[in-house]
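Backbone-to-sequence.
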């Protein structure tokens, strides 16, 4: 099918969680599925730590965007999924952590003894679906799912026709999340980077190594690495590339 890339401008142009959630709500019509879901995939230790810090372990569907979880799944299913602890046993999540390829729910439903989670989901209006594992450039993971009340047999034609569009949408939505994060982090750090940290990031953005930057700035390679690591820490970045992207997004540097 022909992809209309202009439909993603609203996603990439969102400047707040609320604006991004509004764009997310529109995607169900675009993708012709009944309900959508997006969430970061956290390692088990991080999930447990986050749950421990929350006073209320059950998050309402309305409160999820603040944690970068976006959904149009039925609220009753959101509550049921959390209360049953399905995140620890969901076969879709297990598969998402093993491969970046699209996951078709029907592959699990065709098993001799499908996991009970699928019967429970069907009872809540989610009969079949497609999930896209997202492996980000900075090592982050996420998942994007599109579900329908129809059975796998009834939705087979829709699945074949739309899986590519779902995949593309997942990537664009994840990028919109990353942009929002970088803008937020960088905006908090504007003015907090030292001149040397900004210079080091600028030359790193231009493709220079720490050794080359040292020659340009007339400082040691070790000192350049020190400045870049400081900039990464202040920007909340996990690597040099993410720090550069965050600095560019708010105008700290213009390579």
């Amino acid at each position: 099918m022909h992809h209309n890339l202009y439909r993603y401008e609203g996603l990439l142009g969102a400047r707040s969680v609320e604006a991004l959630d509004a764009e997310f709500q529109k995607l169900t019509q675009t993708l012709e599925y009944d309900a959508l879901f997006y969430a970061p995939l956290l390692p088990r230790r991080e999930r447990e730590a986050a749950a421990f810090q929350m006073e209320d372990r059950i998050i309402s569907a309305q409160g999820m965007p603040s944690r970068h979880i976006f959904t149009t799944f039925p609220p009753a299913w959101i509550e049921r999924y959390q209360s049953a602890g399905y995140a620890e046993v969901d076969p879709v999540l297990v598969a998402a952590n093993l491969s970046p390829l699209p996951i078709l729910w029907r592959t699990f439903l065709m098993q001799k003894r499908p996991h009970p989670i699928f019967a429970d989901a069907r009872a809540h209006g989610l009969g079949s679906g497609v999930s896209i594992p997202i492996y980000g450039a900075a090592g982050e993971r996420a998942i994007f799912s599109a579900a329908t009340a129809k059975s796998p047999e009834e939705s087979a034609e829709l699945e074949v026709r739309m899986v590519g569009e779902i995949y593309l949408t997942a990537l664009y939505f994840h990028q919109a999340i990353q942009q929002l994060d970088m803008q937020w982090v960088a905006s908090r750090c504007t003015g907090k980077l030292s001149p040397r940290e900004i210079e080091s990031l600028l030359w790193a953005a231009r493709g220079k190594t720490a050794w080359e930057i040292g020659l340009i700035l007339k400082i040691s390679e070790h000192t350049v690495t020190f400045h870049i690591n400081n900039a990464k820490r202040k920007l909340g970045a996990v690597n040099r590339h993410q720090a550069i992207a965050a600095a560019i997004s708010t105008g700290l540097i213009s390579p």
